[in-house]
Amino acid sequence: MGACAAIDQGQTLPRTVILLETEEESGSANLLYLMDKVKDTLGAPDVCICLDSETADYDRIWVTSSLKGLAACNLK
């Protein structure tokens, strides 16, 4: 509700971009391509928040310092 109060007071709100990545379980094959395609719209963010982690409870804020990744290689 803080955003609504700020609007009611005539304050300007920060620019917010929401990026929904929905291919994660299949390796995000198109993510870089699509981000490159809209890079002028995305711009250079000052902050990036990832909402892809678990919490032990909803009574406090939890910080995840690293997330799993995906690596591909050819073994010879």
TrEMBL record:
<protein>
    <recommendedName>
        <fullName>Peptidase M28 domain-containing protein</fullName>
    </recommendedName>
</protein>
